[in-house]
Amino acid sequence: MRGRFITFEGGEGAGKSTQIRLLAKRLEKARLRALVTREPGGSPGAEAIRSALLAGIGKLIGGADAEALLFAAARDDHVRTLIEPALTRGEWVLCDRFYDSTRAYQGKLGAVSLGLLDALQQVTIGDMKPDLTVILDIPVEIGLARAAVRRGSDTPDRFESEAIDFHRGLREVFRQIAVDEPERCVLIDANAEPEEVADRVWQAVRLRLLEPARAGAKTA
Ligand code: Z5A
Fold first, then answer.
1. Which ligand 1 atom sits closest to the C-alpha of 197?
2. Domain that holds residue 135
């Protein structure tokens, strides 16, 4: 049986990596194999592109359209070489960011046209959509403070260094995606202790993926 594909989205410091780790543990307890990955990156080719992107190459090579092309190139490699093969083997794939981040960062905030974004999406993933997208929602100030603590004395990356209005705009875009696609997305209040947020995520995974699969197996 094909595995399930879950993506995590949200602004800076929302807790995506933390929640993915906690969900992977719960899935393992339920005897489900989970592959944890991230975007940009996840495969050797895409990780090479990630380094350039987070160092700010998009600003050097012509701005938001060029940056969107690089995110798409990374996604193409990641989907073909890592995500699709794992789903085909029956594994669950938990991915830290996916195409909603392109729509939010490059689309809404970088002003890349919908036409270009649609074309890039078609080339990189075609009709393949996540089975579930968990959107972690927290006030911008709290997320940025968490990200700053984690970063310590390191320099903020290309996106972390944007102004606070940029981050407020991002939060609104992610919330709107959850409203527009309620069947695929669940919006989760992430302003709570990690284990409490993990309970909310697990509840969504159970209701939307695990229980329907069990019910389907019984009637088959
Ligand atoms: N990007 C894009 O522009 N277009 C695209 O298509 C894609 C991405 C795919 C990738 O950066 C950047 O690429 C990203 C968007 C852009 N922008 N930036 N910057 P990244 O992978 O380096 O970083 P990120 O995805 O933005 O992750 P993050 O926001 O920095 O972190 P997070 O994964 O959401 O959170 P975390 O690492 O789990 O937690 C952060 C800290 O908070 C850490 O110290 C935790 O211990 C702490 N934490 C976590 N949960 C809690 C709770 N519940 N309470 C208290 N403290 C907590």
1. 53
2. 5-219
Closest residue to atom 39 of ligand 1, CA basis: 15
What confidence tens digit (pLDDT) does each residue in 77-100 have?
Answer: 999 999 999 999 999 999 999 999
* Residue 211 exposure: Cα atoms within 13 Å on the Cβ side: 7
Q: Which helix (H) or strand (E) holds 16?
A: helix 16-29
Where residue 43 sits, what CATH number does that domain have? 3.40.50.300
DSSP label of 156: P
Q: What is the CA radius of gyration of the chain?
A: 17
Query: Whole-angstrom Cα distance, residue 111 to residue 89?
Result: 38
**Structural domain count of the chain:** 1
pLDDT at 21: 98
pLDDT score at 216: 81
Q: Which residue type, as a one-letter code, is found at position 198?
A: A
**Is the C-beta atom of 47 inside 6 A of ligand 1?**
no
Distance CA(67)–CA(112), nearest Å, equals 10
Cα–Cα distance for residue pair 155/87, rounded to 1 Å? 36
Average pLDDT, 10 consecutive residues per value, the chain (220 residues)? 96 97 97 97 98 91 92 98 97 98 91 96 95 98 92 77 88 97 98 98 97 81
- Cβ 37 under 6 angstroms from ligand 1: no
The residues, ordered by sequence, that sit 6+ positions from 126 with a Cβ below 8 Å of its Cβ are none
